[in-house]
# Entry
Amino acid sequence: MSRSRWPITAATGGLLALAPVTAPPAGEARQVGPAPAFEHVHALALDAAGRTLWLGAHSGLYRSEDGGRTWIAVSGPAGSHAPDVMAIAAHPHDPRVVYVGTHATGVLRTVDGGATWAPANGGLGGLDVHGLAIDPNQPVKLHAAVRDGRPGLYRTVDGAGAWVRVDDGPAGETKVLASVSIPTGMGGIFLYAGTAGGLARNPDCF
Amino acid sequence: MGGLPTGTVNGFAVHPSDPAVMYVAMRAGVYRTADAGRTWSAPAGGPTDVAAVAVDPKRPAIVYAATAAGRIHVSSDGGATWHAR
# Structure
């Protein structure tokens, strides 16, 4: 599929108007706050209840229950080592359900608020996931931007049970991916991508 | 039209009930649109070198931003003013 379906909109905004497993054991947590102990932050998200702030960084996954004043390192997501967390997608209604995309271990999912995590990579062409978007209207539908192996944009319609490659995805290195409930007029909504080249969007219905 | 500087978009967040309101995290700051991306602006005095941004789904006037170095900044007025945690 053509990459041109992802118009870059950063500089002028003009094109925007075109309108277009086995669960690892529960991780031991350790307090790292209040001084930030992470670096190379990649992702930030709130759970559906607005209580837990999740932060993804090169040094791992962190959570805060006090609006970012103090942080706890979550060491469960990738077994014994801390994953490089590139993306976080929180379920819009269920605060127990969070997905993270990692640099080397693919997608991990928790359904118990982060006590346990399990890989959710079935069908993914690679394990370097740089963007993860959850559909706000159909939260079993997610998109992932994969950079290694068979790179491209992948979609699941069953809560990351099975992924299917959609297309090449946005041009340039994807930094963030998000589903936005703006109707395309073609029965879907828009998928936004932040990339090294700016902000792009594309209908999610292909 | 426009208003987003050229460069890498590191982070993105959208208002939970009004998708015309979006935020992007860039090196130059946190940029906000209220018209689905036609116009963007960032307040003076906001955080820079921003890696990620998130909106509180229950209190969407509250917006969090994280710098690449791990500093957390919070806005309680939809991104108009910011203070460091």
Summary: Chain A touches chain B through 46 residues (CB under 8 Å). The two ends of chain A are 10 Å apart (CA to CA). Residues 62 and 73 of chain A are 4 Å apart (CA to CA). The mean pLDDT of chain A is 85.
